[in-house]
Amino acid sequence: MTADPPLVLDIDGTLTRPESWGLDPRVLDPIRDWEAPVVIATGKAFPYPVALCHFAGIPELVVAENGGVVYTGEDVFFTADREAAQAVAERYRGAGYELGWGAEDTVNRWRETEVAINLDQPVEPLREIAAEYGLEVVDTGYAYHVKDADPNKGDGVETIADRVGFDLAESVAVGDSINDVSTFEVVDRSFAVANADRAATEAADEVLEDAHADGTLSVLERVRGSR
Ligand SMILES: O=C(O)COP(=O)(O)O
Ligand SMILES: [Mg+2]
Question: SS3 for 128?
Answer without folding.
Answer: helix
